[in-house]
């Protein structure tokens, strides 16, 4: 019964407003019971929240992948807030790679997003040749009370290292939330998410090559997803808006309809 409830709960979440996902998920957990809480929070992508590293003072992003109990690990110091001495930590090798990836994506975020916050977290798996990680980017835009927007990128990856190459599995989700409104025209809320997957085999001469490989894979994926969002959300919304209103005056529209009717009448009279 719990598996059926889980499937129905996910189906319900897909039909609710994406702009209120966090509150909807909390209400849904109360409805179905605590036994499905962990599964639902793992299956549903939520907008990222931010924290501040107590040691470096730099902002970082919070998610399930850097949480242990009720504490979150900072990618800059690898310390938990609130402090958790027994919290999970990546191996020494992965921690070095994690630091390099955070520095690289901090530059990527600044160049592509011109602001926002980014974080990268890596963790070991039971297989010594496989490790996993997540790359997070969040950008919020606020223009007074008339316009707000949020972009959340969540890139979960699994990396299998071979002798001279590495196999990368990537699952990317982008959560988009745009609100624009004025008192005289009303409010437009454009929210949703998009998920894509890809796999790549790339050369690996040394462990540091992961930085370039992962960076290239995620950069390409974000470009593709950004173009898809532009077509799905903005293109379709523009088409719908154009169908709902007419740029012509009523007199011009009537004149055009009369001309069309006259042409149709003359064509029919020739038959």
Question: Low-confidence stretches at least 5 residues in length (pLDDT < 50)?
Answer: none
> How far from one another are the termini?
68 Å
| Average pLDDT reading | 88
Q: What kind of sheet is the major sheet?
A: 5 strands, antiparallel
Rg value: 25 Å
In one word, what is the shape? elongated
Q: How are the strands of the largest sheet arranged?
A: 6-7-8-9-10
Percent range of helical residues: 40-55%
Number of helices in the DSSP assignment:
6
Number of strands: 10
By secondary-structure content and strand pairing, the structural class works out as: alpha+beta
Strand content: 25-35%
What order do the SSEs take from the amino end to the carboxyl end, as H and E? HHHEEEEEHEEEEEHH
Structure description:
The protein is α+β, with helices and mostly antiparallel strands and 271 residues long. Helix content is 41%, strand content 32%. The chain has six helices and ten strands. The protein has helices at 2-15, 21-32, 37-43, 92-113, 209-244, 250-270; strands at residues 49-52, 59-62, 67-68, 71-73, 80-81, 117-124, 130-143, 147-161, 165-182, 186-203. It has a five-stranded antiparallel sheet with strand order 6-7-8-9-10. A three-stranded antiparallel sheet has the order 3-4-5, with no helix packed on it. A two-stranded antiparallel ribbon has the order 1-2. Strand 4 and strand 5 (80-81) form a beta hairpin. The longest helix is centred in the C-terminal third of the chain and has 36 residues, at 209-244. It starts with a helix and ends with a helix. The mean pLDDT is 88.
């Amino acid at each position: 019964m719990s598996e059926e409830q889980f499937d129905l709960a996910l189906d319900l979440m897909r039909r609710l407003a994406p702009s209120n996902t966090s509150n909807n998920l909390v209400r849904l957990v109360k409805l179905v019971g605590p036994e499905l809480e962990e599964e639902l929070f793992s299956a549903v992508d939520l907008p990222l929240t931010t924290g501040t590293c107590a040691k470096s003072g730099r902002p970082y992003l919070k998610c399930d992948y850097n949480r242990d109990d009720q504490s979150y690990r900072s990618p800059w110091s690898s310390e938990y807030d609130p402090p958790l001495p027994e919290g999970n930590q990546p191996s020494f090798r992965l921690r070095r790679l994690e630091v390099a990836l955070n520095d690289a994506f901090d530059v990527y975020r600044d160049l592509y997003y011109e602001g926002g916050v980014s974080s990268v977290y890596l963790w070991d798996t039971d297989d010594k040749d496989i490790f996993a990680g997540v790359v997070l980017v969040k950008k919020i835009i606020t223009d007074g009370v008339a316009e707000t927007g949020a972009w959340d990128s969540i890139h979960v990856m699994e990396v299998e290292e071979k002798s001279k190459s590495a196999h990368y599995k990537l699952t990317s989700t982008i959560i988009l939330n745009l609100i624009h409104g004025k008192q005289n025209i009303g409010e437009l809320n454009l929210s949703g998410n998009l998920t894509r997957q890809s796999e790549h085999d790339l050369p690996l001469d040394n462990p540091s090559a992961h930085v370039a490989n992962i960076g290239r894979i995620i950069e390409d994926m974000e470009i593709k997803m950004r173009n898809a969002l532009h077509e799905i959300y903005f293109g379709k919304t523009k088409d719908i808006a154009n169908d709902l209103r007419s740029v012509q005056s009523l007199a011009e529209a009537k004149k055009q309809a009369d001309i069309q009717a006259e042409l149709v009448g003359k064509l029919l009279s020739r038959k």
